[in-house]
Amino acid sequence: MSFSYSKKEKLKSKKLIEQLFSEGKSISTYPLRLVYLETTFDEEAIQFKTGVSVSKRYFKNAVDRNRIKRLLREAYRLNKAEYFNNILSSYALMILYIGKDGTDFDSVETKMKELLDAFSKKVSQQ
Predict the structure, then answer these.
(1) Host H or E run for residue 46
(2) Contacts of range 51-54, beta carbons closer than 8 Å, 24 or more positions apart
(3) Which residue, 113, 47, 123, is CA-closest to 78?
(4) What string of pLDDT tens digits covers the 126 residues of the chain?
(5) Closest Cα to residue 59, out of 72, 78, 42, 41?
(6) How many CA atoms lie less than 13 Å away from 18 in the CB half-sphere?
(7) Side by side, which strands form the sheet with 48-54?
(8) Burial class (CB in 10 A: 0-12, 13-18, 19+), 2
(9) Distance between terminal CA atoms of the chain?
């Protein structure tokens, strides 16, 4: 698995996002929460489709929300290869930032590693 986060790997389908939040399971490591759902995709090469979200309630300015989303995407992109190489089935993922204050890249990356580690352990048990 490469370090890229291409357009095909981004979660964009409204139907899939609604299904993800209604039927999906979640894992939390504050200030991050991961909602996941096992599914199949039309493209056979894609194993994970991932989206990121930051609450407008706590971050009124779009600049702040976009910065945190950029940090989340970058932390995911750098660490996904390390945790997802052994997973065989395909998943839809949504990473939510549930914190109430701003952050920096180092703290986001350490929490992302904890979150992806917990996800890979949970999925490998099934």
Answers:
(1) none
(2) 51/10, 51/11, 51/12, 51/17, 51/93, 51/94, 51/95, 52/76, 52/94, 52/95, 52/96, 52/97, 53/94, 53/95, 53/96, 53/97, 54/96, 54/97
(3) 113
(4) 678 888 899 999 999 999 999 999 999 999 999 999 999 888 777 889 999 999 999 999 999 999 999 999 999 999 998 988 888 889 999 999 999 998 899 999 999 999 999 999 999 887
(5) 72
(6) 3
(7) 25-29, 32-38, 91-97, 48-54
(8) exposed
(9) 22
Q: Residue type for 49, please?
A: K
Chain position carrying tokens 């194993």: 47
93 in helix, strand or coil?
strand
In which residue are the tokens 């790997």 written?
Answer: 9
Phi/psi for 80 (5° steps) reads -65, -35
Residue at 54: amino acid letter: V
Whole-number Å distance between alpha carbons of 103 and 5 = 22
User: Of how many residues is the chain composed?
Assistant: 126
